[in-house]
C-alpha cells in the first residue's frame, strides 16, 4: 500500500523534530569538581595519590589528563590510571610525578579544561654530619648562631636546644629564633648563655624532625664588650607580595648593648588596626586576614641609649581573579552575531584568554 504524499511529508517533519529534540537534550561538560593542589609527605611514597576531576554532561564526559602541558598516555603508563575522571598515581616518584596537572572533560558536544593543580612532595633531609666550630664572643657582645637548614620541601618550624633535650632556648627581648632563616640571635651575651646549642627543624607536613650537630658558645677572656648602638640582623624584604586573606608575618631583631627595644610603625603614620599582633618582645609583627587597606610601607625601629637603627619594607597586595560576569549558553541562527562578555576582579588587573573545546582562540 502506497502512503499519500501528505502523510509522507508529515512523517518526515516528525522525524526531523525528533532529531532536533534529541540533539537539544545534549550539552557539553560542566564542572562538578576540579583538581586541587596536593602536598604529599615523602614517607607516604608507596601510597597512591588521587587528583579529583568530575564533570556532568550529555553524553557523559570522558577525561584526559596532562602533566606540565603534555597529555599523559595512560595506555603506556602502568603507574597512572583513571577512576571515573579521577587520576590515580601509584608507586609515587619524587622526581617524575611532581608538577602541574590539568584535567580535560569532553563529549561529542565539546570539551572543557579544569584549573591547574600542583603535585608536590614534602620532605626534610638530615643535616650533614660534621663537627661545628665553637663560637667565641665577649660578654655583652651580640651573636648569631647559624642553623644551616638541610634541603627540604614544605613549611618548616625551628627551635634550639640548649645543652640537652628537653631544654629549649626561651625567646625574650634578648634571644630570638627566626622562623625565616632558622638562626638563633642573642642580642647581648651573658655568662649564663655559655653552653652547647643544637638547631631542631620540624616539617609541619611530614611531621618529621631533624637536629644539627651542637655548636659551642664560649666566652672570651679579654674583657667585656662595651655599649654600642643597635645593629639590625633580622629584616624583611624591601617588597613583600601578600595575598588577600593570608596571614602576613614580618620579623625584625637587633643586636646591641644595652639590649635594643623593638617598635613598629606604618610609613603613612596610620595606627595599626586591632587585629595586628606583636609577638616575642615585638620581634614579630603579624597581620591576619591581609586586606588591601593593610598594604603599604612598614618600619621597624631598634633603639637603645646608644642610638637607633631602622629597617623598612613594603607590603604589596594581590588577589586572585574572581568572576563578576560570565557568559551563558546561547542559541543562535546561522549568520547571527554572537557577543559574549566576561569580567573579573583581581590585583593586579586580570588578563583574559578564550578557549573553544579546550583550545585557545586566536584573534582574527
Determine the mean pLDDT: 90
* Count of individual beta strands: 32
Roughly what fraction of the amino acids lie in strands?
Answer: 35-45%
Based on CA atoms alone, the radius of gyration comes out at 31 Å
For the sheet with most strands, the description reads: 7 strands, mixed
- Structural class category: mainly beta
Tell me roughly what share of residues is in helical segments. Answer: under 10%
What oligomeric state do these chains adopt? single chain
Parts with pLDDT < 50 across at least 5 consecutive residues? 7-11, 17-23
Shape: elongated
Distance between the termini: 57 Å
Number of distinct helices: 1
InterPro entries: Ig-like_dom (IPR007110), Ig-like_dom_sf (IPR036179), Ig-like_fold (IPR013783), Ig_I-set (IPR013098), Ig_sub (IPR003599), Ig_sub2 (IPR003598)
Subunit structure: Interacts with PTPRG.
Keywords: Cell adhesion, Cell membrane, Disulfide bond, Glycoprotein, Lipoprotein, Membrane, Repeat, Signal
Protein name: Contactin-3
